[in-house]
Amino acid sequence: MKKIAALLSMAACMLFLPVSAQAADLTDYEQQKLANAQSVASQLVYLMAELSQEQENASVDFNDYTAEEIAYIISQNYQYNVEGNAVKTGVTSFRSAFRKIGDLVSVGETTAEIDGDQIVVLVEVEGETRNAQAEIIVSNDMFFILQSAALNPASGMGEKMAAAALNTVLGLLTVFSVLIIIIGIISCFRFIPALQARFSGKGKEGEAREPSVSAALSEPEEEAGQETDDLELAAVIAAAIAASGEAVTTDGFVVRSIRRRNRR
Questions:
Q1: How far apart are CA 140 and CA 116, in angstroms?
Q2: Is 139 domain-assigned?
Q3: Residue 66 dihedral angles phi and psi, to the nearest 5°
Q4: 230 CA to centre of own chain
Q5: pLDDT tens-digit series, residues 231-255
Q6: I need a surface site. Which of 88, 107, 125, 227 has the fewest CB within 10 A?
Q7: Same domain (yes/no): 136, 20
């Protein structure tokens, strides 16, 4: 049990180590700045909710104003430093989110971190039907100028189930598509032996044709050589007959045929 407790303690320390290290890296001024940014972000959530409600009721339309005019209106009427374009996009995001979560009930816990020249604050928001999370980005200075605002509704159980079902269907379609492609490739293997036989048959046919051509070319040469041998043999026989008959020339001799005698 002591070993298990020690392991759990080590795991908890590892989980909280990055947060502690980040907090330790911040100076007192930066930590105070984060606390002030969290307070300002919570107030900006209420401001954006009010502005989105006014836009919903058509009592004001920020699309009719320039970014500079919106910043001036907010600074004069609400005493907040904002960028006009951030208010425009933020109001649109808050209006869309409130249609899903209902009216704003309360603003909960906040977390903040420094990101370069910006401070990103996440604010938990409770709605009538579901909760949401607001992301408020302000400038990393003493003015905390609003640079971006968005409200993201939390996913309900039905949406999570639908997303999980969609992911499952896409995964199955991907797997079956790959299997169909593999089956198609494997089915093409049966044509490979036929192609090999066809190409190898053409090669053998060419090889067979070459000897026949060479044989056809060599046959006249063999016949010519055989005729030459017969003429020489006939001349020798005629000369032998003339010598045996004491003839001077072989003009009167004609060799009709030559037959080989089989010796037994």
A1: 8
A2: yes
A3: -80, 170
A4: 84
A5: 677 677 777 766 666 655 556 656 6
A6: 227
A7: yes
Contacts with 153 (C-beta within 8 Å, 6 or more apart), sequence order: 97, 100, 101, 127, 130, 131, 132
Alpha-carbon dihedral 79, 84, 89, 95, rounded to 10 degrees: 40
- Looking at the 3D structure of the chain, how many domains does it have? 3
**103-146 tens-digit pLDDT:** 999 999 999 999 999 999 999 999 999 999 999 999 999 999 99
Cα–Cα dist 29/27, whole Å: 5
- Calculate the CA dihedral of residues 95, 100, 102, 103 and round it to 10 degrees: -30
58, 83, 63, 61: which is closest to 72 by C-alpha? 83
Q: How far apart are CA 123 and CA 120, in angstroms?
A: 10
Distance of alpha carbon 143 from alpha carbon 37, whole angstroms: 10
Q: What pairing do the DSSP bridges indicate for beta strands 104-115 and 131-139?
A: unpaired
Q: Report if residue 126 sits inside a domain.
A: yes
* Residues 27 and 149 reside in one and the same domain: yes
Q: Name the token pair of 44.
A: 């900006």
Same domain, yes or no, for 48 and 110? yes
Cβ pair 125, 144 in contact under 8 A: no
- Do 39 and 53 reside in the same domain of the chain? yes
User: Contact, 71 vs 146, CB < 8 A?
Assistant: no
Residues 186, 96, single domain; the answer is no
**In terms of residue numbers, what domain contains 134?**
11-154
Taking only the tens place, the pLDDT of each residue in 189-242 is 887 888 788 877 665 555 555 555 455 545 555 555 556 666 677 677 777 766
Q: Which residues pair with 132 in a beta bridge?
A: 125, 153
pTM above 0.85, yes or no: no
